[in-house]
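Worked example 4.2. Below are the chains of a multi-component assembly; read each line carefully before continuing.
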Amino acid sequence: MKKTLIMNGHFISTIKGKSSIKGCMVIEGDLITYIGEETPEPKENYDEIIDGTNKLYMPGLVNTHGHAAMSLLRGYGDDLALQIWLEEKMWPMEAKFTAQDVKWGTSLSILEMMKGGTTTFVDMYDHMNEVAKAVEASGMRGVLARGVIGLCPADVQTAKLIDATEFAKTWHGAANGRITTMMSPHAPYTCPPDYIERIVQAAHDLNLPIHTHMSETSREVQGNVDQYGLRPVAHLEKIGVFSRPTLVAHGVHLTDEEISVLQQYDVRVSHNPGSNLKLASGVARVPELLRAGVKVSLGTDGAASNNNLDMFEEMRLAALIHKGVSGDPLAVPAAEALLLGTKMGAESIWLDNVGLLQPGMKADFIALDIDQPHFLPKTDFVSHVVYSACAKDVVDVCVDGNWIVRKGECLTMDEEKIKREFELCFDRLIG
Amino acid sequence: MKKTLIMNGHFISTIKGKSSIKGCMVIEGDLITYIGEETPEPKENYDEIIDGTNKLYMPGLVNTHGHAAMSLLRGYGDDLALQIWLEEKMWPMEAKFTAQDVKWGTSLSILEMMKGGTTTFVDMYDHMNEVAKAVEASGMRGVLARGVIGLCPADVQTAKLIDATEFAKTWHGAANGRITTMMSPHAPYTCPPDYIERIVQAAHDLNLPIHTHMSETSREVQGNVDQYGLRPVAHLEKIGVFSRPTLVAHGVHLTDEEISVLQQYDVRVSHNPGSNLKLASGVARVPELLRAGVKVSLGTDGAASNNNLDMFEEMRLAALIHKGVSGDPLAVPAAEALLLGTKMGAESIWLDNVGLLQPGMKADFIALDIDQPHFLPKTDFVSHVVYSACAKDVVDVCVDGNWIVRKGECLTMDEEKIKREFELCFDRLIG
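Applying the procedure described above to all two chains together yields the following structure tokens:
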């Protein structure tokens, strides 16, 4: 088994206490086996020795909500309200998407994410075989679900459910375990209750979690009350969604009581601050969710509503916006924002062995070039990562013990080909 | 006079209408003399021809509020309320700052700013001769003021005022006009009214504008009412500040009536969204200020409260946060955020010939590398600049017709020496 030593680096190995150490990390196969200030064994015992001078090593970022293929719609229909943006801009264009579009749109997003330090991402979309194949080829970790919209005839509903189930069965545990799957009703407002119940039953049968959008806008909440007499949380609870392990995206409009329900069922919330701000959906009650003990993580959402896939920016937004809006300068401090983007992200998608640089954890980590003005003085690197860094500071990325980015270059995919094919897809879609 | 042609580039030349053109730009001396789709003259007429393929040219960014030397305090005392942060963390450390510290702290910030696409910045600090010398050496444009705090004996007040006046006189119009100066009482809560009046009189005598902090926190507003019986706007109006052209930083806590007063006096507001969020000061009423016709621009503030000097991030925050907080997805659209960071920034500091790529304007512009996933598809570059770009996408920077950054490398200052000297200063300050 290959044994690699990284020396002379700065490492964010634990979030509490001392924010980083200067020292060494050892990787054996797909695992981290040592982290500390001293070199644990003579140098001749290692197959590879890497000089980590002027590099900051930290856990890879975990993006818990997105639609990667939507990079094809980046900048298309900005500055609109969510429902109009969705119904008049996104859905008509997405209706034209073929498997090829999903392949190249997703590949471009994977490139952007991996080069920017994201090592794991959640994807909810259509043509998911293409997404899974791209994840497999990229070397990233993916938690994938065929998102189904149930506003269609019964036979189409059934066909979509079969597609989602087949996908989930086929790919769960694939790519050396780098791919896991979920079942995903798109949202309570796009799926009739009986259809959601069938999806939940399928998730029970397959022993898989559920991922859905929930309580993203006040209009959605009101619509749910109008249609079903319940707010989305009570509605989803009633039809049994929370009987499965569940990850909801957004959770912007929540009452204290709803937060308490989410905590009771251990429902995890993917906070998407960039997307929620851009679509004017509002500001999620993240400090309250965290205080209640709900697992919160961070997602970029699709590039059409963000418009990049920079998880450093989501950590920074999470650290900044809740301070500004609540008036509490201690809301979501830097160390907590970093946890949301790493360890809590991993836990939110049922990955207990990634998101932290510790012996026994998977070797999913990234290195940032800290020989730059915005990383000086070399004091609190947790602060610098959250308040000062960006995706483009990332130079090296390792997932499952394999390097997928070195010196800023992607080692696993053909970047030029992806950009070219992406532009051809876009030209055809817009034409 | 040197004549340069840039061909095959994308250019953001006007903010309204078509968001960018593909074509050419001509620079003669320190001016832009042509921009358009066709090459205006045969190629042999140019001294230099630059291939702009895969580059997006746009006006250099204008940072209208900051304290560059505070990069020495980046990450020092995060996650605290403004007054505690200021009184218990910043001021005791700043009291130790020597001219050398200001020299190297400022130089590091200038490096970060120029490499990140900022071509003009406002600085309010002490030891301003060092700041002006660094601006001169860097090739950037600076609007500089010796910020004075009047909480001191009369003789010290007088000495500071003389220092500020001498500085403003000496440097106004220096470095081929790249440096202009202002007079700067630090804030209504740090300067007694009679002292502010003396500073205003000096500004009258020198025919210079005023720059001050104002209405940054609700605590400051309440303190002003408690001490002087007036909110800060009425207080500054009463003691004659607005009789001079004035730029105020922050302006977070403003009533409708105060906004109207600012509009009447044509007082300009530097909006610092990152700093205001981080210090939990609140969210400025930017949509209302803009609707009232107040000139709003963007500032990073010092690195201690931001914590980087990335003006792309300030544009993005301005475009995002006002949507999320107001619930209006049309608040501060991308084109408006870009104006705040460029043309309106320049106008806010009385520079009428920078901030726009148009014939007759100063050749202050930057180029971004757009051959990257987050700039695809190549549709709306104004959207991509505001919602997707970051400082590190900048590859070339030109100010006053001179290249100061090419291919990401600073041409005018010794980056390695600056980083080294900066760290020595920090070690001494913290030791």
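Take a moment to check your reading of the output against the notes. Chain B has 15 helices and 18 strands. The mean pLDDT of chain B is 96.
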